[in-house]
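Subject: sequence -> C-alpha cells, single chain

Hey, anyone have a minute? Need the predicted structure for the following. Not urgent.
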Amino acid sequence: MAVVAQEGPVLIRDLVSADYGTLARWLSDRRVLAFYEGRDRPHSLDLVRMRFGTEDGVRRCILVFAGRDVGYVQFYREDDAEMRSYGWEADPNAYGVDLFIGEVDLWNRGVGTRALSALCRHLFQVGATRIVVDPQAWNTRAIRCYEKCGFRQVRYLPAHEWHEGILRDCWLMELVGGPPPTLHIALVEPEIPANTGNVGRTCVLCGVHLHLVRPLGFSLDDRYLRRAGLDYWAELELSVHESWTAFLDALQGRAMWYFSGRGALLYTDVSYAPGDVLVFGRESRGLSEEILSATGDRCLRIPMLPQTRSLNLSNAVAIGVFEALRQLNFPGLV
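Reply:
Had a minute. Here:
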C-alpha cells in the first residue's frame, strides 16, 4: 500500500480492501455518523464495498496516528462545473478534501488538524493551487479545524448538502498560496533588535510565522534588526500585536507552549502539533507573572546548569523550534 504523506506520528496511506471492515465499524457508530454521512445512513460491509471500492477519481486513504488506524481521508480534483458553480474559473490543480476521525477517543486531540496539515502540504508539493472544503455550517468543530490549517471562509452555501433528511447550509472554505506555517513563534516584548533579527531569519528558513507583541524595545526599522536578519527579513511572515490581549485574540484556539526557566516540563517531554505557538519572553525578565500564572501545564524549560541564568533568546527559540519540527518529521524541509 502506498504512503501519501507522513509527518511525525501522522501517516496517510492508500485505502485497501482489508480496511473495509474498519470503515464499516466507524460508519455504524452513531457518534461518527452524526458528523459524517448521517445517523440515518449506517454502513454495512456491503455498502462500504460498494461506496469505497469504486474507481471514480477519488483517492481514498486511511489515516494512521502513532501506528494505529484512526480515520479516513479522501482527496480529488475539483471538476470544472463545480468550480464555476462557486464563481471561480476552472482550475485543473484545485483539489477537494474530506476526512473524519473514526476512533472517538481521539476526538478533540488535534489529530484531524495534524492530518489535514500533512495532506495540504503534500497537495501543494505536487502542484495544487487551491484546496477547497465545504463543511456544514453547524459543524463548528470541523470549521475550526480547517481554520487552524489556514482555510478561510469565502461563501455561505444555503441548502447545499443533504444530511439526516435535511438540506444543510454549508461554508465554502479555501486554502490558497501554499501550505500554512508549520509553527508560530511569539516574542513578548523583546528588547534587543539583533535577537529578534536572528529569530526572524530562523523563522524564514523553517517556514515559521513570527509574532511580536508590543511594547518592543526597538523600531522595526532598526539597522541591527535588519543586519541580523540579513536579506531574509523581507521574506518573513510577520505579525505585530499591540498587546498581549490582542495577540491572544488573534491566535484564539491554537495550542500555546510557554518557555520559561520555571517550567515544570522539559521542552522535549511534550508532543507538538502543526499550528502550535511557542511563546518566549523578553531577554531581561522572561515572561511576566501574569502570563505564567495562566499557563497551567504548558510551561516548558530548556535544561541548563543550575548556577547559570538563561540562554540567549534567539538560541532558545532555535532549540524549541527544531525540537517541534523534529517531532513533525521536518515538514517541507530538506
